[in-house]
Every structure is written in structure tokens, then in C-alpha cells.
Amino acid sequence: MINTDQIKPDMPVVCSQDGQFATVDHMEGPGTIKLKKDETGQHHYIPVCWVTSTGDGKVKVDRPGDAAMMEWSTVSPDHIDQ
To answer: How many domains does the chain have?
Structure first.
């Protein structure tokens, strides 16, 4: 189980192949990580269930970067039902 208290702003988010594809903005509720804006000015969101570790000052996820970027959301899960 991942301790979400260890996920801090500005931590790099790396894929299963150790390449950085994003940076943490902040935790968005208990189960979602909001990522900093990309080069187009868009925030993205990933679920904490993707995270495999938070060691070495990085958030590592369980999938390749290309897959993560295809599956991430541009809408916070908190706003989907509104």
C-alpha cells in the first residue's frame, strides 16, 4: 500500500521504464494525483492505484509513459459527477 503522505508537490512522475512524463502538482483527494500543467497548459490526473513506489523522491507508476498519457484524465474525478 502506498502512503500518499509521501507524494509531494514537484515530485517527478516516472513510468515503468523510469522515464519522467509528468510532475506532481498536488494530491486531489485521497485517490487522485493532480499533475502540473503540460506544455499546452493542461492539467492531468492519475489514480493513486497506478503508483508502485514513492522512493528516491519520485512517484513511479506501473505502466509505460505512453500508456499513462493515453489513460490519464483531464478532468478531476471529483468533478465528473457534477
So the answer is: 1
